[in-house]
Amino acid sequence: MNRNVSGSGMTSQRTRARMIERLREQGIRDERVLAAIAAVPRHVFVEEALASRAYEDTALPLGFSQTISQPFIVARMIEVLCDGRELGKTLEIGAGCGYQAAVLAQLTDEVYAVERIELLLAKAKLNLRAIQQFKVRLKYADGQLGLPEAAPFDTIIVAAAAARVPRALLQQLAPNGRLILPLGAASQQLVLIERRAEGFVETRLDAVRFVPLLSGVE
Ligand code: SAH
Fold first, then answer.
1. What is the torsion angle, in degrees rounded to the nearest 10, for the CA atoms of residue 54, residue 74, residue 108 and residue 79?
2. Which is the closest atom of ligand 1 to the Cα of 94?
3. How many CB atoms lie within 10 A of CB 4?
4. Are 118 and 217 in contact (CB under 8 A)?
5. CA distance linking residue 163 with residue 209, whole number of Å
6. Rounded distance, CA 81 to CA 218, Å?
7. In whole angstroms, what is the distance from residue 43 CA to residue 47 CA?
8. Cα 146 to averaged position of ligand 1 atoms, centre (Å)
9. What are the residues facing 195 on neighbouring strands?
10. Number of CB atoms found within 10 A of residue 47's CB
11. 101 touches 159 (CB < 8 A)
12. Spatial CB neighbours of 152, under 8 Å, sequence gap ≥ 6
């Protein structure tokens, strides 16, 4: 695979800077999150033919009917998870091409990312290697079951919409841990769940549109 990892010179630098400006205008305030997004070359993670659109604020096709998440949604979810704390040990469900995992790896040393489509996982592996990101531990599995062998997690982020919160993910959340996921089918909403001493506390956030969380592997 022939990838332009360093970015196409000034054009990439400028479009990337513009993307960060746009995220600020859309209300992303956490400088750590903005710096993490600025540090990851999104064009490496999209199909060659779409590379020129990599810094637009839009979801793009990854193949296998899946999409790379929109930068604003990646930023928004991570900002909510970071608010007033460190991410700590983090689990991502739905690694796709590895883009969001790469952003998470800018913010914490322990990132596990699970994907149920084997060929996408292979792509994620290549992409992360291309940007020299070796911290992310990729696993081929059904993320609805979480990742029991590495649990508990301080942070869990789900990149596909579930009809209801998978019980395993609640069980694998550490005390004071945070889980964010899109919930719903036709209409979806981002939901933050915090594990506190008194129990799970749920906060409903923005309306969103994600691909569905599916069962099993392929
Ligand atoms: N995080 C990705 C977004 C990928 S889209 C990015 O940064 O671009 C959502 C991904 O979730 C798809 O790759 C899909 O295959 C995966 N997915 C859906 N259900 C899953 C499950 N049960 N376990 C693991 N991955 C799942």
1. 130
2. 11
3. 14
4. yes
5. 13
6. 30
7. 8
8. 13
9. 200
10. 16
11. no
12. 89, 172, 173, 174, 177
Q: Which two tokens stand for residue 199?
A: 């129990």
- Burial of residue 148 (number of CB atoms within 10 Å: 0-12, 13-18, 19+): exposed
Active site residue 69: yes
Contacts of 208 (CB under 8 A, 6+ apart): 73, 161, 182, 188, 189, 190
Kindly name the residue from 6, 12, 65, 69 that is annotated as catalytic: 69
Instruction: Give the phi and the psi of residue 113 in degrees, each rounded to 5.
Output: -135, 130
In three-state secondary structure terms, 42 is: helix
Using DSSP's 3-state secondary structure scheme, residue 175 falls into strand
Taking residues 133-148, what's their average pLDDT? 98
- The alpha carbon of 170 and the centre of ligand 1 are apart by a number of angstroms equal to 18
Report the SS3 class of residue 100.
Answer: helix
Percent of the chain beyond pLDDT 70?
95
Tell me if 122 sits within 8 A of 64, measured CB to CB.
Answer: no
Neighbouring residues of 205: CB distance < 8 A, sequence distance ≥ 6: 76, 80, 189, 190, 191, 192
Q: Mind listing the pLDDT tens digit for each residue in 33-61? A: 999 999 999 999 998 889 889 999 999 99
Q: Which two tokens stand for residue 2?
A: 């022939």
Q: Which helix (H) or strand (E) holds 63?
A: strand 60-63
Q: What is the pTM of this model?
A: 0.95
